[in-house]
């Protein structure tokens, strides 16, 4: 794995998700909050998760140089969540997103990892703007996006999904690290 794609914070290691994370990804994408707020990805087994990683995450990583990152707690090397930059079909711009297993919510890991990925987006990957979408009743996500410096700019629909999402944005020139 390319060393320049591994990021660290005080408590976390963020590295590109790979096929060795298949069981973890299977668990994460089937948590109640993922299913409610992000949606069912039809990942029905660790084997299906491996295909999902190869076709969705690793394909984007190869194409753009960034994608989904597995968030690992330094203190015990447990995989606790994901955070990343996503080129979503039907969304104008690169989306910053995050999700954590229920046992690791509420400890600041979401902000810590997303803030580090935001820094990499602007400093290393050369992005000039990030967007984020969230459901209108996902107040925890909205609060985190605002803490990261993103501002609500309206609503949007993504692809063929009839759901209307809140749209957030931050421009590099408005970012302070």
Polypeptide structure, described:
The chain has 177 residues and is α+β, with helices and mostly antiparallel strands. The protein has one domain (3-127): Gcn5-related N-acetyltransferase (GNAT) (Aminopeptidase). It contains five helices and eight strands. It has helices at 22-29, 32-37, 46-64, 109-123, 139-147; strands spanning 7-8, 12-16, 68-73, 79-86, 95-100, 129-134, 151-156, 165-171. Strands 1-2-3-4-5 form a five-stranded antiparallel beta sheet. It has a three-stranded antiparallel beta sheet with strand order 6-8-7, with helices on one face. Strand 7 (151-156) and strand 8 form a beta hairpin. Helix 1 crosses helix 3. The longest helix has 19 residues, at 46-64. The two termini are 27 Å apart.
> Which term fits the overall shape?
globular
Helix content: 25-40%
Low-confidence sequence ranges: none
Tally of alpha and pi helices: 5
Question: CATH superfamily, called what?
Answer: Gcn5-related N-acetyltransferase (GNAT)
> What integer value in Å does the Rg equal?
15 Å
Main pleated-sheet profile? 5 strands, antiparallel
Write down the overall mean pLDDT: 94
Classified by CATH, the class is Alpha Beta
Query: Percent of residues in beta strands?
Result: 25-35%
DSSP strand count: 8
Multimerization state: single chain
Please name the CATH architecture: 3-Layer(aba) Sandwich
CATH-defined fold name:
Aminopeptidase
